[in-house]
Automatic annotation (TrEMBL):
Domain of life: Eukaryota
Keywords, ordered alphabetically: GTP-binding, Hydrolase, Nucleotide-binding
Region (Disordered): 249-271
Entry-linked SUPFAM superfamilies: P-loop containing nucleoside triphosphate hydrolases
Subunit: Binds to RNA polymerase II (RNAPII).
Family matches, as PANTHER family: GPN-LOOP GTPASE 3, XPA-BINDING PROTEIN 1-RELATED
Protein's UniProt keywords contain Nucleotide-binding: yes
Pfam family name, one: ATP_bind_1
CDD domains xref list: GPN3
Protein name: GPN-loop GTPase 3
Its job: Small GTPase required for proper nuclear import of RNA polymerase II and III (RNAPII and RNAPIII). May act at an RNAP assembly step prior to nuclear import.
Entry's family note: Belongs to the GPN-loop GTPase family.
Gly residues bias (residue ranges): 261-271
Organism phylogeny: Eukaryota, Sar, Stramenopiles, Ochrophyta, Bolidophyceae
Amino acid sequence: MGPAGSGKSTYCSALQSHASTVRRRIHVANLDPAAERFGYDCAFDISELVTVPDVMEELSYGPNGGLLYCMEYLLENLAWLHERMDEFGEEDYVLLDCPGQIELYTHVPIMRRVADALQGWGFAVVGVFVVDATFVCDVPKFVSGSLLSLAAMVQMELPHINVLSKSDLVDAAELDKILDIQSASQISLETSSNSKLNRLTRSIMSLIDDFSQVTFLPMNVNDEESLEFVLAHADHCVQWGEDADVDTTAMDNVGEDPNDEGGGGTYGDGE
Ligand SMILES: Nc1nc2c(ncn2[C@@H]2O[C@H](COP(=O)(O)OP(=O)(O)OP(=O)(O)O)[C@@H](O)[C@H]2O)c(=O)[nH]1
Ligand SMILES: [Mg+2]
């Protein structure tokens, strides 16, 4: 989830290719009816059901109304989604690349109902909210990014993580500074001479604090360690891998067959 252009699809493709480097498989499916090209291997695509250009042409809607219509159409046809999701196995890990219209997560209950349906079908779901790091690199912007994320958190009622995309485009020291002030008590050190604005900012940050931890995980798509860090947080939220059977064959067979690479847990090497 996340605002338009924040890097949701890039997150999906980066995690899919990162997973393949650690011998793990991540499926990605597209739920954005406006998307036409994907940088990932797409397991299924909402365009099988409905697309924004078709709705715009047939119903004379604009792009935003068209997208809302498509998502409402998806809600009316959840059986399609259920059928497509049912094709995955019990251990499969799936990313759903969602549209970039922020209202879908914060104002209208459309994505909430999609998430509820997924949970009802037995899927463990984590909401990954992607925010562009270049939009949160000063205090007022950080507060507004936090509020956006908080609104999605409250509306979606899912285990939730916030990912700061495009971290490679901002100064690392600046980003660290922003990530370090995720506490209302430190805000006063960071704000300007406008005392009224300072008080407002502090109050909003206290509110965010009270809702407990709107924290952001910086993600650099070019850095495997950073991708692993984000993936580990998402895994933790869905408790992925916790029920995995640990294959101890390799340990049992130590010294018996030097060519046997043995097995690993579901995580693959080094985990
Ligand atoms: N440098 C850099 N560019 C990024 C990163 N993530 C996304 N971009 C660029 O930002 C633009 C938008 O990225 P997308 O992944 O399409 O964003 P999106 O959230 O899926 O966009 P919509 O689906 O249209 O809402 C593209 O040009 C990406 O190449 C990143 O981590 N670093
Ligand atoms: Mg996208």
